[in-house]
Amino acid sequence: MKYIRPVYPGPGKAGDKNKILYSNIEVEIPKLDMPVTPLENFHRVAARKNPLWVPNSLTDFQNLMLQELAVGRGEARAQLIGSDFNRIVTEDYDYLDWFGVQWTWVASAGGAVTTPGVKYLDDIADWEKAVKFPDFNNWDWQTKADDFMKNEYDPNKVLHLDIGQGCIQRLISILGGYTEGMYALALEPEAVKAFFSRYADFMIELVDHLLKIYPADMMTIHDDWGTELDTFYSPQMMEELVFEPTNRIVQHIKSKGCAFMLHSCGNVSRFIPYMIDMNIDFLQLQRRAVDIPAMKAKYGDKIGFNTGIEGLDIGAVYTKEELIEKIRHTVDILGKGGGCFINIFERDPQLLWYGLWELYYYSREYYEGEKAIN
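RE: above sequence
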């Protein structure tokens, strides 16, 4: 062990405060002694060229979700862009998103589903008449952007914007469910193709709109493509319907100098070659459904992965030594060559302290050893 890990100084002395990804929970994070900025190291990690450590989303990133970035004006004031993860509730509630789709926030699950029995659209063939794409002018973006850029923005960190739903997710939302969405793919491919093309145009417009007010370094889109058993749809449907509009969005983002990450739940392993063809930088996959270490071993020289600590069960209690062991194991199997950054959701301040330092210093030792070998 080359680097001595600092001893936990006690609550209120750990350093900065930051929000856990996709949460309103604030935690104390240590100030890490870094030889280059987190942003420079991230570029090395994404390119898989001489990374110095494995980044984590707490210390190395500033994360903003699309629904945090604007407030509706006029009629749009009654709508949300998407799910409000910062609203802590104990009971379910309904809301409209910025397309006018009705959702139900399920408190017990900590997430939203389209409201059962309520449909925005019955037939995808009618999308041109029925689907009202949001007008950016109906939302106040500048107020929050000005406040963030003045009071919070750190140019040394990765500014990550999570910009919402991809083509499949938006399709199933306007049709009221996954079953309806898959029927549309099979029975109305031409209508689906036309809708996806228009939606890709909209997402490209959104990207350009956001980049006028935020100097983003990475953007993420959420598009679940499978169940825990397999993908929702066939490779043929991917090739004929989903690939082109998704690729168009990805290439536009990357042409702006942003890295791109795809969040996709389900066992989407057989679609990873398509993701590589899109030149996606990072995949955020569902560990319960995908053997991420196996995918890293198979595709890690071509695409990156964002994941949690390997072998860590949500809700389980671990000792400091157990946590450190799992972090080291994660770096050993996912860190090779770069192309990996980690989410740490630990809330215990002492465990978080030791976990963040261990990830940082152990991965520095790992990459220094890797460089010495090469």
